[in-house]
Amino acid sequence: MASASRATPDKLPAWQALKQHADELKGVHLKTLFGSESSRWTHFTRHEAGLTLDLSKQRWDDDTLEHLLALAHDAGVPSAIDALLSGKRVNVSENRPALHTALRLPADATLNVEGEDIVAGVQESLAQMERLVCRLHAGQWRGATGKPIRHVVNLGVGGSDLGPLMVTHALADYRPDNIHPVEVHFASTMDGSQLADYLGRLNPETTLFVLSSKSFTTIDTLSNANTARDWLLGRLTQHSDFVSAPPVSAELIVRQHFIGVSASPEKMSEWGIAPDHQLKFWEWVGGRYSLWGTIGLPIALVVGMTHFRALLAGAHAMDRHFSEAPMEDNLPVLLALAGIWNVNFLDIRAHSILPYDGRLEYFAAYLEQLEMESNGKSVTRQGQAVNYSTCPVLWGQLGPNAQHAFYQLLHQGTQSVVCDFIAPLKRYDEVEDPDTRRHLKAQHRLALANCFAQSRVLMLGDDALEDDGPRPEHKRYRGNQPSTTVLLDKLTPTTLGALIALYEHKVFVQAVIWDINPFDQWGVELGKQIATDTQGIIDGQGDITRMDASSRGLIEAFWAAEQDG
Asked: Where is the active site (predicted)?
């Protein structure tokens, strides 16, 4: 990454030039920028890896981009990209590489990191995952009572849940034919509400659990896992409703009904997971960047390994583009620079993610973690407090639903919000029935019309409407709200992989410019530590008098509720 002795970004010459430029451009409306640049679409749009990135509706001009590219050079972005992809120790607080991109390298590639070619190990882990997937898809994985597994419940939280959940939902159309049916479910909440629903509906004889935890100490996941294990043991060793033959052993139940995915094989073994049912995870992969490896087991179970490898190939195509393309044509770099411009120079601190395709229902939630856990930092890589804004607040949901929810604020609220609109250009070509295909394609055109219309009116405001005479103030729209549109040629495993990698690399570039480390999450770790201490006090094993008045009152309210029965 950039030199440890570099100036903070706000002291760089390009930053100062951007501040002056922003003062000059702040009063210019987006409609004016479009009116003065007939080639604006061509100039601010790029296409790569099945994606079209339209940045023409950002509140910038040619000079802005020139200054931003100078800032990226001053901040050392080109050398930082090389450091990331070559396996340098870019995670400075934990002194290790961040090699999620290595998980999607082709099998014939090599990547020597500190004297070791890590590609072979990655490919071995994928091969082991494929063997497990093939057993389940062939109906050959049988539970302790001999019945084939029909349901797989993924127990994970954060990146071990959000990534696989998002991708399996997005690619549900790509389920392979002619396989033993296996349904995949997700349980992440520590309160047990999701898991309780599955335990009430699923047959323990045909249910398999995947414990996904990098450290294998995550209390959310282990609390669900312990409950699931007790449920299986109670049902399969005691109740004749499920076991017609003599009761099976606890060891066999745990062996046949649990798979572990972790960087701590000794902890998996201690919990009881059989060595050949353990999938490897590496310390140099952050949880929110982990869906490309064995954490992606639920994805492979839903779409099959062929489509899973296509997902990896799409991400790798974006990796190559990120590595090789000049910065002025580099999609992740340009997307990152638009964000820097909005946050640091236009003072826009809110960012909404708005997919116009129901299959991308969980994409906003996925990006919330990716961006805010990565770049929600307030100290530099050298440990100094920053005096400039870093990550904006991200939120979003499906665009057609959001139109009937929070778009009112976007169009007529008092603060600026930058929006990312995401949609596929083609859909429903594979529907066999002609009438159904025609109707569904009409609905897709309707979704695209709404997507394009919303970004247009956010940009132009009242000028997007035909002149129908004076309007009262409550029917006025100021416009001038910046947005980005990302179009997928078609939503496939390959283009989805490229889309996710686009945002991953955007986050990295912004972190380089802000001089922060996007690969740790000490704020999350602090919350875990304090929660463990608080749990001890709730359980009567700590000193409640050292708690603040509010926390003490909340705990005592819980104790009172327990006593009331």
From this structure: 373, 404, 528
Q: What share of the chain is helix, strand, coil (3-state, %, to 5)?
A: 55, 10, 35
* Higher local confidence (pLDDT), 188 or 467: 188
User: pLDDT tens digits, residue range 224-277?
Assistant: 999 999 999 999 986 555 555 567 899 999 999 999 999 999 999 999 999 999
- C-alpha span between 38 and 41 (Å, rounded): 8
Q: How far apart are CA 471 and CA 118, in angstroms?
A: 65
The rounded distance, in Å, linking the Cα atoms of 212 and 273 is 12
H helical segments located in 434-548: 434-460, 493-514, 522-538
pTM of the shown model: 0.94
| pLDDT tens digit sequence for 484-537 | 999 999 999 999 999 999 999 999 999 999 999 999 988 887 887 888 888 889
Strand residues in 24-76 grouped as ranges (E): 45-48, 51-54
The one catalytic residue among 11, 47, 426, 528: 528
pLDDT tens digits, one per residue of 21-69? 999 998 899 999 988 667 899 999 999 999 999 999 999 999 999 999 9
Q: Map out the domains of the chain with their CATH numbers.
A: 9-74+325-466+476-514 (3.40.50.10490), 101-298 (3.40.50.10490), 525-563 (1.10.1390)
426 in active site: no
Return the closest-CA partner of residue 496 out of 286, 355, 336: 355
CB 383 within 8 A of CB 190: no
Please name the residue that has the structure tokens 């405001």: 461
Strands of 151-155's sheet in order across: 183-187, 151-155, 207-212, 258-262, 278-280
- The predicted pLDDT at position 12 comes to 94
Phi/psi class of residue 368: alpha, beta or left (left: φ > 0; alpha: ψ in -120 to 50)? alpha
The Cα–Cα gap between 64 and 345 comes to 10
Q: Which secondary-structure segment (H or E) carries 184? A: strand 183-187
Rg (CA), the chain: 26
Q: What is the DSSP letter of 379?
A: B
Asked whether the beta carbons of 211 and 259 are under 8 A apart, the reply is yes
C-alpha–C-alpha distance, residues 489 and 49, integer Å: 9
The catalytic residue among 266, 324, 404, 474 is: 404
Query: In b/e form, how buried is each residue of 166-194, taking b as 16+ CB within 10 angstroms?
Result: bbbbbbeebeeeeeeebebbbbbebeeeb
Yes or no: say if 417 and 342 are a contact pair by the CB < 8 Å rule.
no
User: Which residues, including other chains, have CB under 8 Å from residue 115's CB and lie 6 or more apart?
Assistant: none
Report CA dihedral (173, 175, 177, 183) to the nearest 10 degrees: -120
Q: Which two tokens stand for residue 314?
A: 């799409």
528 is catalytic: yes
**C-alpha–C-alpha distance, residues 161 and 195, integer Å:** 13
- The helix or strand, by DSSP H or E, that contains position 320, with its residue range, turns out to be helix 297-324
Query: pLDDT, tens digit, for every residue of 286-306?
Result: 999 999 999 999 999 999 999
Pairing assessment for the beta strands 418-426 and 483-490 based on DSSP bridges: parallel
> From the candidates 373, 504, 505, 506, which is the catalytic residue?
373
